[in-house]
Amino acid sequence: MLDNVDIKPVTFFHVKDSRTGKIKKRRLNVLIDTGAQYSVATAEVAHYGKVRKPKHSVKFRTPQGTFESNRTTEMTFYLSEFSES
User: Fold this and answer.
1) Alpha carbon of 13 to those of 26, 27, 44, 66, 81: distances in Å?
2) In this structure, which long-range contacts are made by residues 31-37, counting pairs with CB atoms below 8 Å and at least 24 apart in sequence?
3) Rounded Cα distance, 58 and 67, in Å
4) Which has the least CB within 10 A, 2, 26, 38, 57?
5) Using one digit for the tens of pLDDT, what is the confidence trace for 2-52?
């Protein structure tokens, strides 16, 4: 029976705005990939962090192909499902 269940490692998270220091109320979806070296975020979310333009572009390899970005961001987010508070 369990073989018929489509399980996806998805949960919700909240992001902290680096400029205001406040946690945004809007819940966002996150796909958890424990084997990933980096995380990928859309521009809609990435601007809450400190966006930087590195000297060299960053490449991400996924089963769907290779993606390249000329921007990186450092951000804080909270996985409320795994929090004790």
Assistant:
1) 9, 6, 14, 25, 8
2) 33/9
3) 8
4) 2
5) 566 666 778 888 888 988 999 888 888 888 777 777 778 888 888 889 999
